[in-house]
Queue: 4 jobs
Job 1
Amino acid sequence: MAIETALTRLFGIEHPILLAPMGNVAGGALAAAVSRAGGLGIIGGGYGNREWLERELAAAGNEPVGVGFITWSLALQPDLLDLVLGHAPKLMFLSFGDSRPFLPKIRKQGAKLILQVQNLAEVRAAKALGADVIVAQGSEAGGHGSTRRALFPFLPAAVDAAAPVPVVAAGGIADGRQVAAALLLGAAGVLVGTRFFASREALGHANAKARLVASSGDDTVRTHAFDIVRELDWPAGYTGRAIANRLSQRWHDRDDAFKQALATEIPRYQEAVAKGDFDTAVIFAGEGLDLVQEVLPAAAIVERLMAETGTALAAGAGLLR
């Protein structure tokens, strides 16, 4: 089943599904698999690592994929944009920071521009900057974001403010019922992260994927704790949604005390990462975890999402009398 939207027409794809550019998770193999399945894969450039980017861009092969960056981090390593643009990505995805310094190079290369936003002021700013697509991210999303707006109240307002620029919905979307709901609220597509983290092609420890499948959205928390222990100085107003564990339970909302304990906590955290111990190490994940019940190939996830979307849209139409 194919659904045609402004997003599918813009990128020439079969399904209105974008892979979220999850840092250290959405590598080249996963991005390529999503693109082959009819969606559009986006490699997660994250905080920027040249060796990692070169390897994952190569892993994507000749599949049409995009690359995403945390914008404030890219500002610290602007040469990485040249590296990525040299591979002629289909799109660049920027979020969390001032994208203006990077737009001339992106436009010159010919890549489409996706800007992710978390409130209406940012929607209007992204439209004014000439974004080809705007991603409206709700607070349900895994990883970093704002706590200000939940997705479904935010989405139709963002669609209205962005028009005629297509808007993509992001935040806790893990099955086709949610895709259908987003489309009916005016979205041109969806950005899916956590559901693709639990895929065979995703980077990440097997223990992390097992924890995803075993967890619920109720188990997640928005916190600064994992940024503090990784010494990442995120701008004010942003937290990371992750599966709660012993570290977050001990240090959540105790930022000052945690910073005083980093001399002992950082080595302990690094050891946990090396061992795949996710009672301490972070697993960023969204509220859609209740709908993530097994690790599947990315293509199977795309197929299931679209089948469920068709079923949900048909059921909705059946309510009309």
Note: The chain has 16 helices and eleven strands.
Job 2
Amino acid sequence: MLARAMRFSGTYTALITPFRDGAVDAPAFKSLIERQIAGGVDGIVPCGTTGESPTLDTTEHLDVIRLAVEFADGRCEVLAGTGANSTAEAIELTESAEELGATGSLQVCPYYNKPSQEGLYRHFKAIAESTELPIMLYSVPGRAVIEISPETTARLAADFPNIIAIKEAGGSVDRVNQLVQALPENFGILCGDDPLTLPFISCGATGLVSVASNLIPDVIARLVRACLNGSFDEALVIQKRYYPLMRGLMSLDVNPVPIKTAVALQGHCTTEFRLPLVPMDADRTAKLTALLESFSLI
């Protein structure tokens, strides 16, 4: 099994999945990835929450991962979202992503069925044993109802050398402190909320899985680099400048509706969503438009 040789660190963009006429829009997806690489991100994350993964069928899911690997062409990491609330499905997706050339796997905490911490351990154990890919766990209680406890995370880190990181999206800086205390020093802790990047990294996080970087990859990459370099004065300037934008992209509607709409307003994709997600109404679109104009983004 893979030794814990690498560490997820830096900026990873949770990619939107552009659609056109009911299908994945490959040219728009390629353009988006080119913008990410030009902006200096360290990796891309296809098929996560922001990529509307619950609405992709298995063929589409794997096709998006394949396209991400192809378009990235080794220029950045491709951390494929291959988690599921069914362990067997997560294993199938992860094994396929490995065959397609992904460089890592993002494994969301199983949602809806509310497993115990022992159930979580066995779920991630089965996945880790099925692949050589480095794995980033994803704790997001706002969507999964439950969280991966620091104790369970530490147990997994100790038992499986290819489980090397966690995306922490519970919104609590104290959770970062708890994870830092519980986990090995070389275990990655990635912030899952753009506005919390600075405080998370100041407490020991190693990077960010970003929504806003779909829109402003260069800015987010600069923010993360400044934090990781200990240049917190510089980071605070960026944080203060762009906080209203980062906040607006998460508060005007449910993610990924605002970020995809923002990218569409720039002309890079359509505002096509799959039910049960729907486009923003006129009032919210007007507020988002004004916000983007205030940052000279459109």
Note: The chain has a mean pLDDT of 96.
Job 3
Amino acid sequence: MALTLTHRFVPGTPGAPTLLLLHGTGGDEDDLLPLGEMLLPGAARLSPRGQVLENGMPRFFRRLAEGVFDLDDLRLRARELADFVSQARQEYPMGDEPPIAVGFSNGANIAAAVLLLHPGTLGGGLLFRPMVPLVPQPLPDLAGVPVAVLAGRADPLIDPGQSEALADLLRRAGAAVTLEWVPGGHSLTRADLTYGAQWLRNAVGVA
């Protein structure tokens, strides 16, 4: 089967979970592979490239302006990503459980959209610097799905209310959400890595 998105797949140790790595604007399928290994050594890693170009930089969906999303395109791309994950689970040794998304910025936003629009596709989400991508009606049933929202206290791009609103939205859908504030701005910090690694170990039941 020819998979629909340009991507990289790195097998994990037998029985290990799979991380779906979703880059930020301007990244590609290689961007978060080292991060995935640092966060959860031995996990399988599936890393697609966003298909939308903004000034030559790959993204996972279109935006109309900074912080203003093209919701029709977002829904389309979320469906495409959900279909890609389903195809990849048939193509690669990814285990019996859905992958956990690890997304940064634009990648975190598309991960949140997939959680909200296509429940069951992902087993959870570690979302670095996300915003509310959209508010589906009705809300999905995400009972018990683990999600971590990691927000920067001095992030110049994302209002703190956005992080809190996303955490609240996911909680209202039933997800088991933690909202963690880390020092720094929009870029990842050592605190993100430390907290994210511990959260992932807890989420997948690794001591």
Note: Helices lie at 33-39, 71-91, 106-117, 160-172, 190-204.
Job 4
Amino acid sequence: MNEQPQYAKKEKNDTTVEKIKELEDLISKSKYNKRTQHAIGLYKAQLAKLRDKQKSRSAGKKGEGYAVRKTGDGTVVLLGFPSVGKSTLLNALTNANSRVGSYAFTTLTVIPGILGYRHAKIQVLDVPGVVHGAAAGTGRGKEVLAIIRNADLILFLIEVFHPDHFSTLQKEVYDADVRVNQKAPDVKIVKTSRGGINIGSTVKLTKLDNKTIEDILKEFKIANANVTIRQDIDADQLIDTIEGNKAYLPAIVVLNKIDMASNDELKNAQNKIRPDLSVSAEKNIGIGELKSLIYNRLGLISIFLKEFNKKADMDEPLIMWKGATLRDLCLKLHKDFANKFRFARIWGKAVRFQGMKILKLGHKLEDDDIVELRIK
């Protein structure tokens, strides 16, 4: 008696997988133009709903999981296929001493290490190699991709002999609801009780018309809403906004094992994936440049603090995110400092002249600024 529901569930899952495959094929074979814009938009909406259904079913499966506590000034995840050299790269960047082997699946748990660069302490995580189908639950893929969502930067590590792996990794990360090197679309959707769908746009829309927007919203059971669009979005970006569950992360693409490749093999791989950097973790080639790239792509800045009538402490800066303000600085130092703030004097690129008196907490700080806070 108990076997029948399990069989029915498996059959239902198989049907969902088949429908997903059908829609993916339809979208890939459809030539995008004004005439097909509407149909492709609806296909993508239907596909997103089916993927959500598939994820919600597999979410109920309990696994061992990986317990990783974020630490340091930022977290970087090394993402790549098994045996691509993640452990070797981790050891080159940090003092993690991750086990290294020349065979696949050497890393069976998450190995953390700390990269020290320009006073910043950056957490680097070596996760088990991702394989095709990870986002759908193959192997430990879903657990690995869940860790990625909580990171601050993804480092795609691609072996020079397998540049084709990059597109697979991109798809897995995309299917796991992570958008790399993108910002959240500037779109606001406010549901209403009546009045239908009202669309207001401050820019010319070249990839979607109002009819397509309305029908995509209706696919997600939104019949009444005020929609404000402030950038030229496509169907994928509209769907991402509707679902509201996407993580937007910066990413670096690194080509590894260049010491083992011929000039032609290296050029071929570089032309295919256009990496940010080509390195050899084994031979320590390009590692210094990679450390600098990680720091800059994370968007970290160093702020040096100074007491009144004393020299600035240039040995121990406060590490903050690019775009941080004096308010952020006060809150990081002590929760009461923002309320007791009188003014600050700043030396650096963020002011018109050195030692300038700043009265506003909203003043943005720049890398290597020296700040003297005056508190009530």
Note: The first helix runs from residue 3 to 29.
